[in-house]
Amino acid sequence: MSAEAAVTTSMRDYLREHPSLKFFFFGGKGGVGKTALAGATALWLAGQGRRTLLASTNPVHSLSGLLGQDVSGGHTNITGVPNFWAYEIDTRETIERSKKDIRDKIQWFLKFADISTKADDFVESATMNPAFEESAMFENMVDMMLKNEYDTYVFDTAPTANARRLLGMSKVYSLWVDKMLKSREEARTLREMLSFTKKKEDDPLLQYLLQFRTRMGQARLLLTDAQQTAFFFVTLPEALPIAVITRFIGWFHDFGIPVGGVIVNMLLDRQALGKDVPEFVLNRMQMQDEHMKTVWEKFDGQVRAILPLFDQEVRGVPMLRQAADALFR
Ligand SMILES: Nc1ncnc2c1ncn2[C@@H]1O[C@H](COP(=O)(O)OP(=O)(O)O)[C@@H](O)[C@H]1O
Ligand SMILES: [Mg+2]
Question: Nearest Cα to 140, choosing from 122, 102, 166, 175?
Fold first, then answer.
């Protein structure tokens, strides 16, 4: 069986079957080509006349390197490519802003509850953990999705485990906020009962939580809508990356998040290699063949594209175009 023969629904087919697809995500083990394929997809979508934003929510930035253009300052139009914008979110800035936000709210709360403690201790414990960074990035992504300024969004996601936690978090957020709201309501009622003035308290924390829950609910609706959202999983014809996306796809099914399919990257191209192939390369081809069998066993019907290993990195618009051609052939 030739590799190509088994792609039953290609990337192009999938997009044709999902014409209102708007949010594209790429997941997989580090180094498999997520950033490169996210870039290629965004370029292709822009070429279809759709206003497209390629955004990185990954703390390790790489979009500027990918595009050969600084895109860290804000939504940046890619030179010479109509409809194509890219944005690398500044993690540090986001985190500082969230910290300040949290500090303000905690300060307000301490005053409200007549607790004479410095907010700093609370702020430290609330923000000094990796989950805080992730949740700040997640909120950033949600902001972009809800703003709805583009026809399509392509997100270069954080590495596998983080991305799953980010999405799992939207459910947890909701539960957490419900609990918080309940106790805030109780606290407010108590305070109102104890106070002589009957005027209703304006409670910014409560307002924030309500708004937050609404936003998270909206985001979850978008993220679980298979007509609008698709996660594509990138793998190499190698054991570990295959194991990673297998686990990932399982999780996503559990979360009800739509899986768009699997993309196999960096397959050695037999034809391009010609006749005198060194043994080293032959061995690698054989290894890849073996792993391709696993790919077909596990993901038959879900493989959307197989990309060759190019003779250079995928960097700059011309190389992205070449990758896009292979992805949407
Ligand atoms: N098909 C390919 N052929 C050759 N190089 C590739 C291919 N796909 C990706 N690369 C290169 O592999 C490296 C890792 O890709 P990258 O997109 O950064 O992976 P990830 O985002 O998953 O960590 C980059 O240098 C990229 O240019
Ligand atoms: Mg990357």
Answer: 166
